[in-house]
Amino acid sequence: MKIKKVLVSQPKPTSEKSPYYDIADKYGVKIVFRPFIKVESLSAKEFRQEKVSILDHTAVIFTSRHAIDHFFNLCSELRITIPETMKYFCNSETIALYIQKYIQYRKRKVFFGATGKFADLVPTIMKHNTEKYFVPMSDVHTDEIKDILDSKGIEHTEAVMYRTVSNDFTPEEEFDYDMLLFFSPAGINSLLKNFPDFEQKDISIGCFGPATAKAVKDAGLRLDLEAPTVESPSMTAALDKFIKESNKN
Predict the structure, then answer these.
(1) Is the model's pLDDT at 107 over the cut of 70?
(2) Nearest to 162 by CA among 76, 78, 67
(3) Scanning 100, 171, 205, 211, which has its CA 20 to 30 A from the CA of 60?
(4) Average model confidence (pLDDT) across the chain
(5) What per-residue confidence (pLDDT) applies to 141?
(6) In sequence order, what are the residues at sequence separation of 6 or more whose Cβ sits closer than 8 angstroms to the Cβ of residue 133?
(7) pLDDT recorded at residue 240
């Protein structure tokens, strides 16, 4: 089946040089960016129910830019003034630089890992093992950080500050796509919430990552494209190859 219209369940790229635009031009395909999920902060009332005092801590661990946004936004809503002495430990330099949106960036109080993986940030945390760490979390998370910090004897508190919810479709929105691309299990859940009677038929479904692939299959849907692979390390590389093959038929 020829692919003419693709829904990418992510926000529209900020750069016009995105490979998605190259694919659209190359094959004459219409690509629509429409997230199936969105991230929102807990309310101040909800956060208070966790009975956690942020100011009892001397350092914060940030694993994403979402965590930074919702941490500072909730602190503002709670009228908490973060002291100048607070230290920040981030999974990557990109996340660390994002802190500048909220505070003055100083290298002596902002630290980051080399690879973006939490395990590679741990040696830096160990050098500051007397700090009391606060970890803002999503409602959906693994125990990786807790398990590692517990094993190292690092004092820390985890608290949910934001959650992933379905970004609902309106009745006016057209849903006439030849292909849907997903990047998280939550996206699949949102598809089934928005369209409980969804019938895949000739619609191709592609996904990124093994967890999302499992969610597609668990939902009883047909998975037509999976990335990353050795041949296609990115979703755009996989999509380019898939459209090329589909258009031959």
Answers:
(1) yes
(2) 67
(3) 211
(4) 94
(5) 85
(6) 57, 58, 59, 60, 61, 89, 125, 149, 154, 155, 156, 157
(7) 96
Give the total residue count for the chain.
249
The number of beta carbons lying within 10 Å of the beta carbon of residue 101 is 11
Tokens of 197: 């009677």
Count Cβ atoms below 10 Å from residue 115 Cβ, excluding itself: 10
Which of 199, 206, 187, 188 shows the shortest CA–CA distance to 246? 206
CA distances from residue 30 to 9, 43, 176, 199, 248 in whole angstroms, order as listed: 14, 38, 11, 22, 18
The answer to whether residues 42 and 74 touch, using CB atoms and an 8 Å cutoff, is yes
* Residue 113 and residue 124 in contact, taking contact as beta carbons nearer than 8 Å: yes
Q: Are 99 and 63 in contact (CB under 8 A)?
A: no
Whose structure tokens read 């090329």?
244
Mean pLDDT in residue range 138-150:
92
**DSSP strand pairing (156-166 vs 179-182):** unpaired
CA–CA gap between residue 181 and residue 157 (Å, rounded): 36
Q: How far is CA 129 from the centre of its chain?
A: 28
Whether 73 shows a pLDDT value over 90: the answer reads: yes
Calpha distance 178→238 (Å, rounded): 16
Whole-number pLDDT of residue 249: 67
